[in-house]
Every structure is written in structure tokens, then in C-alpha cells.
């Protein structure tokens, strides 16, 4: 059985006892779980003694988690059992250590894959690692701010009318995407101010490449136009997103937490809520601007084109 392990950490500005108590209470997990955010109505069952809970979802599968050991307030050890989409048992630990006036939280898991799935080891490590990072970020907000600042809605399938665009194509580390887009936005905005072309809406990001193992992505930051350009400006590209049906995930909150919307959309696709197109790349539409909108009120629509 191919074994793999995941370890992620975060600093939370709260006392160790408070962080431990929050994680120890399974009834608080729905507020920050990186999986339940994708299926907020998933049926949950909590044990009367508070030592376990289980779920039975259409999107996140079914399974359960049980406390098997504890050194309060320093660590909690769990047995994580999945029944669907495949059966597995994993060892999970949360550890808590006082650090810099707050708490250093470490989330670890050791597990294995069925032998026939050995080729997925690196990908599973990458995906679960990203899930843990998203969960820890939400746990931090819940404990520091009293709420998670990333909210999802699922409008479902909608018609996208299509558009011609001009944009800047870039590739780099997923951790640097914020700075890369800021750089590209400045270039695109400078061209817009000097050009006679008429925008047909807000900015769009088209994701052409995403490698979770190498943590690399490729995208086009694009401006939709009322009329297509015949030649691309220097250092830019032109193109078209065709009219299509797309599955929409609506995200409200800071851009760094858009991973919640992308992860949820991919989970919905894997659960056959919709059939994702392979010929039209997914994209983001921005309903408002960080220049005029508070970070928590930023709205982004993530579109997953649907297979015709």
C-alpha cells in the first residue's frame, strides 16, 4: 500500500486553550472545514460523548472521525475513516504550541492508497495539503475574527454569452499569483487608458494550466471587448471565450481564499453534479474591484464550462 503524509501549520493569535477547545469540538468544524464548505447541507451526525462525528454527503463522500487520544491542550489524535468514494483509514493529529503570544497549530495526516492507485500519491499529497492550508486559514479567521471571511454560493448552470478579449498571458508559482496578477493588471490598465477599444465588462482570468504537484499555473488576465481586435498589442494576446453553458460557484471574500471556490467546483465535478468541458478553460469573473470594495465584500464568479 503506497503510504503518504501531509503536514501543514499556521499561527493563530489566540491562546492554546481556546484553539484546542475549538478544534476538539466537532460541532464547530462546519464553520471552517475545507470540505464542508463545498457541501454545507451535508448530513452530519455527532456522538453524544463528543468524541466522534460522521458525514454522508453526495459531494464529499461518507465517513467518520473519532478521537483516539489526547494530551490536552497540546495535541489531539484522530482516526479518520472514509467509506466513499473509496475505503481508507488514516491517522490524523492536531498539535498546539504556544508561540509569539498565540498558538502554532500543526495539522498532520498519515495514510495510504490502494496499490492500484500508487500513481496518485504525489497528487493526493498536493490536494490534501491544499485542503489543509485552506482549512487552517479559515480556522484562523474563525478564532481571530469570529467568522470565516470566505463564503460560497452555488447558483448552478448558467448561460455565458461569450466574449472577445485582449489580455496578458503569464505563468508562475501559485503562491505568487497575487503579485503576478497585480503586475499584469497594471500593464492591462495602462493599455486600456491609451486605447480606443471599448471594454464590454469587468476583468476575466482564464486559467489555462494548473499543476498542483509543482504548484504552477498559467493564466490570461483579460479585458472583454465590444469588438474583437485584428492584431494583438505588443506583449499581449487576443482571443475569444465562446458562448457556453457553465457551472458557477460564487465566492464572496478576499481573493487569496478563492481556492475554496475552485476546490468546491472541482469536487462538484468529480461528484457528477455537472460535466466539465475539456475544450473551454475555466475562468473567473470579477463583479467588483478591490480599489472601491472592502476585501470581505469582493465577489468573484468562478465559471466551469459544461460539456455540451
Give a short summary of the structure:
The chain has 308 residues and is α+β, with helices and mostly antiparallel strands. The protein contains four helices and 15 strands.
Characteristic key phrases:
alpha+beta, eight-stranded antiparallel beta sheet, 308 residues, seven-stranded antiparallel beta sheet, globular
Description:
The chain has four helices and 15 strands. With 308 residues, the protein is an alpha+beta fold. The strands form two sheets. An eight-stranded antiparallel β-sheet has the order 8-13-15-14-10-11-9-12. The chain has a seven-stranded antiparallel β-sheet with strand order 1-7-6-5-4-3-2. The mean pLDDT is 94.
Q: Helix and strand succession? A: EHEEEEEEHEEHEEEEHEE
Distance between the amino and carboxyl termini: 39 Å
Please provide the count of β strands: 15
> What gross morphology would you assign?
globular
Radius of gyration: 21 Å
Helix content: 10-25%
* Average residue pLDDT: 94
Residue fraction in strands: 35-45%
Class from helix and strand fractions: alpha+beta
- The stretches of 5 or more residues where confidence is low (pLDDT under 50) are none
Assembly type = single chain
The largest β sheet comes out as: 8 strands, antiparallel
Total number of helices: 4
If strands are numbered along the chain, what order do they take across the biggest sheet?
A: 8-13-15-14-10-11-9-12
